[in-house]
TrEMBL record:
Gene3D superfamilies reported in the protein's UniProt record: Glu-tRNAGln amidotransferase C subunit, N-terminal domain (1.10.20.60)
GO biological processes: regulation of translational fidelity
Lineage top rank: taxon: Archaea
Molecular function per GO: ligase activity; transferase activity
Name of the protein in question: Putative Aspartyl/glutamyl-tRNA(Asn/Gln) amidotransferase subunit C
Enzyme class: ligase
E.C. number(s) listed in UniProt: 6.3.5.-
Species for this entry: Candidatus Nitrosocosmicus arcticus
Keywords: Ligase, Transferase
Lineage: Archaea, Nitrososphaerota, Nitrososphaeria, Nitrososphaerales, Nitrososphaeraceae
Amino acid sequence: MAVGIDIKKLCDLAKLEIPEQNIPEISAKVKEVLLMFDQLDEFITEGVEIISTEDLKFERAFENLRDDIPRPNLEFSGKTQPKIKLKNIKDGFVLGPRI
C-alpha cells in the first residue's frame, strides 16, 4: 500500500482531492506515466543529428520581444494605498500561507 500512501502525499502537495476508491486507479496511471519517463531515459541519442529549430514557427522572433520595463503604477510604497485591502503585508510584500 506504499503506492497509495505516495498518491495521498502527491494529492496533498498538489492540493487535489481524490476519493479513496479512485486511488488504486490513479496509482496505476501515475505508475504508467513514470514508466514512460523511464523509457525516455533509455532513448539513445548518440549518433543522432540534432535537428535545428529553423523549421519551427515562432509567434514572434526572439529579437522582437519587448524589454522587461517595470511600470511605476505597480510599485508599492507605504504612501500609496493598493486598490485591494490586503491583510498580511510586511515590508511592502504580501505574505502568503507557509507551505
